Amino acid sequence: MNSLPSQTRSDNRPPVVTRVTDTEWHAVENGLPVGRGDVSQRPDGRLFVSVDAWHAPVFDRIAAAMTAALPAPLYAVVDETDHESAAAWHRVGFTTGRREWGYVVPTDPRVTGLGPVRPPAGVTLVPAGEAEEAPLRTLDRLVRAEVEAGAGWRTMPAEVLPRPAWSTMADPSKYAVAQEADRYVGMVRVAPLTRQPRIGLVAVLAERQRRGIARALLAHTLASLHRAGTVSAWAEADEANPAATALLESIGARRTGAALELVHP
């Protein structure tokens, strides 16, 4: 979202905001485009909106049109240091719901201290791209159910990707898993982005937690990235999730910023 201070306007006629598709709004003034708004649905069902406008009044009109047309609650994300954007959203009725820290995660085992880490007895690690899809999707559903029954899936980082309503997993090849006996009990998702891979999720079934499986999955994943020549990865963690932040910081991850998740009730 790009919101800049309002500049002197040639007249007082307000821009015309039109919903051009189910997910897109355009603002036109004197025949010229002056802003746009978009909405996307995340895998957990929440609607996230964004507005790109040069003038503050245009931003306000687009945001008003979107909040009037879409079911509440609505969400938006801004960089914590982008005070101007945060103020724009607050001006139209959004409030800060949560903060998500961003981390640069080293991959070198000599830095992370994960070199000697191995999975517990009876647990084997299946590299990304080699997991069987059916049991992987079963694990994904179980993890999501446990998260939703606890802190809520809204506290977990989520990729904004189009996918069928019945599918919670866009690309199974991104997942490495921990297997115990005949089932999967933990997983880590890595998006192989060109500039810096993104660790989108580390999860272990509740009944198998506190056994070192998550650390073993991270050790395996980061070592694989290191061997491929990747110096660091990117990860996010909700500031209200002390287990996640402690795990990242224990392996030398460096906090580099934060994103604010805003909500319109």
UniProtKB/TrEMBL annotation:
Residues 123-265 form the N-acetyltransferase domain. Pfam families: Acetyltransf_1. Gene3D superfamilies: 3.40.630.30. This is GNAT family N-acetyltransferase. The lineage of its organism: Bacteria, Bacillati, Actinomycetota, Actinomycetes, Kitasatosporales.
